Amino acid sequence: MLPALGVLAALAAVAPVLTPYLTDLLLKVMILSIFALSLQLIVGITGLVSLGHAAFYGIGAYVTVLASGDGGGSIATLLPLAMGGAAAYALFVGLLGLRTRGIYFIMVTLAFAQMAYFVFHDTGIGGGSDGIYLYVRPALGAIDLENRRTLYFVVLGALAFTYGLLALIRRSRFGAALAGIRVNEQRMRAAGFNTYLYKLAAFVIGGALAGLAGFLVASRDGVVNPEMLSWHTSGDVLLMIILGGLGSLRGAVIGAVAFTLLRELLSTHALVGPLADHWQLTLGLAIIAFVALLPKGLIGLMDRLSPQSAKGGA
Fold first, then answer.
1. Which residues form the signal peptide (predicted)?
2. Phi, psi torsion values for 223, nearest 5 degrees
3. How far apart are CA 175 and CA 202, in angstroms?
4. Hey, CA dihedral for 222, 35, 292, 300, is it positive or negative?
5. Residue 228: CB partners within 8 Å, gap ≥ 6?
6. Residue 281 and residue 267: Cα distance in Å, rounded?
């Protein structure tokens, strides 16, 4: 936990000297880190591969905007609604989807995510394919998310909360049960554990944390659109945790940082020239190279370079 606390302290310390561009970039990285951590609980810790996690992220964002109306709303109201809405849909998907396994579970999560996508894309609920705008960002007393610096510290606090919560879960009896389910679910059932309920709880917590990321991205951008719920977004966040290292909380954050920076660098004409027009291709090739050369992700490389850090586990 000490390296994580050091990173959080450094992010807080540099806030006053950041340029607007760097502030926005770090906001993006931190929100995606929360999103990646929420999926790491489901995939890396519990062993449930989901290709529909973007649904909870998008629902959290849409609930934030829809509940705000034209006059804005309070963080104390909108944040629980966003996380609760995402968790409720995760509960619905989990109740049905967790009765399947393997590729069938992957396809069920994808199907439910696409269903949510088309609800917002093809109806007037969320403005159709154009999406909807958040005219007044949430506030709570002196905490006004219209202020970029305030938003920065709120997102940083949310990242610290998410990381700390998942670290506590991993060290708890609940986390040990999830790890056991990932390794051998049949043995856990034989030991008397109701693995269905454990997986459902993890799935709902992961959905709620994705809803938190959705609330924050809506507050940052002031606009949401159906693409947030698409399978491309689910694929991106899955790539983040694979790139960083499955099963590691630090890996989820490192993967989000690496994925974001790679996309920024490879889409910048000043750095890669005409290749910037085809950044999706170069990004794909770069990720394939990383995965082929680093099967344990970037966190595996860091642990090899610093053997003492491998014992941290988070």
1. none
2. -155, 145
3. 9
4. positive
5. 54, 57, 58, 61, 214, 217
6. 11
Kindly report, residue by residue over 252-269, the tens digit of the pLDDT: 999 999 999 998 888 887
Whether 257 is in a domain gets the answer: no
Q: By residue range, what is the domain housing residue 160?
A: 22-228
Give which of 225, 210, 237 is closest to 89, Cα–Cα.
210
143 membership: H or E segment, kind and range: strand 143-144
Residue 97 has pLDDT above 80, yes or no: yes
Sequence letter at residue 192 = G
Q: How many CB atoms lie within 10 A of CB 115?
A: 13
Does a structural domain hold residue 152? yes
Report the Cα 72 to chain-centroid distance in Å: 25
Contact 240, 36 (CB under 8 A): yes
Report yes or no on 191 lying in a domain: yes
Average pLDDT, integer, range 102-106? 93
Give phi and psi for 133, each to the nearest 5: -105, 145
E strands present in 187-236: 223-224
Total tally of structural domains belonging to the chain = 1
CA triplet 229, 233, 234: central angle to 5 degrees? 90
pLDDT band for 236, please (50, 70, 90 cuts). Answer: very high
In the beta sheet, which residues pair with residue 1? none
Least confident of 30-34, 43-47, 261-265: 261-265
Residue 175, domain member (yes or no): yes
Rounded distance, CA 26 to CA 15, Å?
A: 10
